[in-house]
Structures are given as C-alpha cells and as structure tokens.
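Archive maintenance. Older records in this collection stored only the sequence; we are now back-filling the structure field for every entry so that each record is complete. The fields below show one back-filled record exactly as it appears after the update. Entries are processed alphabetically, and Thermophilic desulfurizing enzyme family protein is next in the queue.

ARCHIVE ENTRY
Title: Thermophilic desulfurizing enzyme family protein
Organism field: Aspergillus ibericus CBS 121593
Length field: 427
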Amino acid sequence: MTQSDVPATDPAVYDSYQAKWSALPDTADAWLARAREVAQVLGQDAAQRDQENKSPRAEVVLLKHSGLLKLLGPKKYGGGEQPWDIGYKAIREVAKGDGSIGMLLGYHLLWSTTANIVGTPEQAERIQEWIISNNYFVGGAVNPRDSDLKITSDGEDIVFNGAKFFNTGGVVSDLTVLEGVLDNTGEHIFALVETRQPGIQFAHNWHNIGLRLTESGGVKIENVRVPWADALGWDTASKTPRDDVLKVPFASLLLPTIQLVFSNFYLGIAQGALDFASKYTVTSTRAWPFGGDNKDSPTEEFYILERYGNFFAHLRAAEALADRAGNELATLYSQHSDNRPGLTSQQRGEVAEWIASVKVVTTDVGLRVTSGVFEVTGARATSLKVGLDRFWRDIRTHTLHDPVAYKNRELGRYALLGEVPEPSWYT
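Back-filled structure field:
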C-alpha cells in the first residue's frame, strides 16, 4: 500500500485557523488558552473521526497552525521557549478534546527535543533550528520491546536497517527519530531523518480499539543513511559516544520525560470524559423512576451527584500530583541543561519516582473514571453516535504500553528501602 492509497483527513478543513492563529502566544497562560482552543475544535467531531479511523493529516496540520509544535522551541528560531511543565499542561488540554491528538502532540514534544537531552550542544542548536523554523512534526521509530535497529558504519555515514512493530505518528511526520545499536559495540545511537524517503516503509496497519488517530503501526527501515555528524551525542572523529553527553545521568532523562507525557494525556482524556459525560447527563440522562425516592431530574439523583463528586475529587488530586512532577522535572532541566554532569543519579532517580507516582495514579483514576461515567449517563450513552466509549478505549489502549505493576514495585522499593531506580527504557 502506498501513501496515496491511505485514507486521510483533509487539511483544508482547518485552513481558516492558519490566519486565526498567525501569531504565537507570548505567555504561559496564552499557550494553554491556545491548547484549549485546539481541544474545542477537535472535540466537535472527535467521535466521528475516531470511528472513521483515517490518517490524521488534517489534525497534524491543525497542530501546526496552532503553533503548539513549537511550544518548547527556542524563541530565536521562532519557538515559544516554554518549560516542560507548560508543555505537559498543553498536552493535557489537547487530550481533553481528542486523546489521539494529545498523544501525538506529547510524542512530538519529546522527539523534537531529543537532541537537547542526548545530543551535543551543537547538534541540539542545529536540530532545534531545523525543526522549529520549518514547523516540522516529529515521529519516532523507537520501540524498545522490538529488536534494535542494526546500525553499520560506512565511511562518513551510519546506515540503519530493521523494523519496529509500533511507530507513533510516523506516517504523518516530517521527521522521524531512529534509534539502534552500532554493530559489534552494543552502543545505542539516536538520529533524526527526513520521513519521506524510500528506506522508510510504513505498514499502515494501525487499527486498534483506541487512540485510533495516532498512526502507531509498524515500519520497516531499509538502508537509511545518516551522516556521522548527526549521530546524537557521538564524537565524529573517534566515532565513539561522548562521555560528557551520553555517559551522565542527564542523558537518561529522556525516559522519565516521556513517561510523564503518557500520564498527562491519560489525565487529559479522563478529564475530557468527565466533562463530556456531565454535559450528557444534564441534557440527556433521565432520572430513575423506580427507586422509591424518585427525582424529577438526574442532577437531583444522590448516586449521580456522589459519583461525579468522587470522580472530580480524584481527578483534581491526580492533576495536582502531575503538576508537582512536571515542576520537579522542569526544575532539573532548568538547573542542568547547561551543566549536564552536575545532575546526580540520586536527583534523577527521585524525579523518576515522582513521575512513577503520577503514572500509577493516572492509570488507576483514568480507567476508573472513563468506565464509570457510563453509570451516571445511562444506557443510551453507550450509542456509538454519542462516542463516550472513546475515552475508555483510548486510556485502556495506552496504559498497556508498559505494565503499571512494575511502577508500583519500583515505588515500593523507593518507599521501603529508599532505592531510586536504575535508568531503563521504561524508567
């Protein structure tokens, strides 16, 4: 199947927003207001788009029009230069309207800043200018549970070969992050490449129950060449990893950073479900007439008020925890981006445990809220036309990414023994 054969949404439907959002927001509050505007646009037909399951070309263009792809980028290249805690809140806001697009935004913000974490300062500057000045959307062919891509050295280039079962956003991306192992070394290399090239072949097989507009299907990588100069964090002369870039705890911040991306779109999806359900309850749910304490309106029903209050309280608590973790991580970046060796393993580990806590709580609360809202909306809310089911399907799909049981165990060792986790692909 070629790219032209894949059904896709039409970017022209969002043409008017290019002029409407021609200027970037200039404060943190304005950026979050922009994210809420995007969520409102997406929420208008989210259920229909979810069921149609078309490649989200239009939705990515909407993100480009909004400026949100540039939120973390340097101002000197046309970015918003906001810290990660604002990035996380923006992801959450977009996910309230459409979980798939909130996820795409989150993955993009992570992959577009990869060079800031594992690249040299020169690489980070060059790649940030490349991404932000072109308003590129970035996907990633990085799935640690698959076999690593094989990398071979060929003169001044490295060559990637292999396949990944999952590849979020790649089909609709401008750039793709590749990651693999250099032959006979065991050393990993990250690099960004242009997506539209013959050696990147998408399977177009993403047809899952949730997050249906994320294009998270498989990809084959065949003889994709990258200059050694673009091997993030590597010394081009010696062709070895730079100790001051890749052999320090700072480089491993990539993993807790994306784990907190996950938790924030879980939280946004759950908050969106509660908001969507509450509107449905007020307008369409009927009071139960056979309980012996009959009410005229569903909003007078004790069990409905009790459930909404309980869901609301737990989501508020999860949001407070997510904000605290976001602040902790943003502080590490602020303090150590210009002094990477200064970050200790203990500091990195303690922030990872804040983030693990958020993962546990948002998984538990998100699944509970997105399934529980049916109890307070009624049988008619199960109609596909209503689309309330998409919130649960979205959270259920991604919370299987890595078993939350291991996060609970990790937190148990931290609480009981004071042990911070060793960096891994999931911690």
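Update note: The mean pLDDT is 97. The first strand starts at residue 138 and ends at 141.
Entry marked complete.
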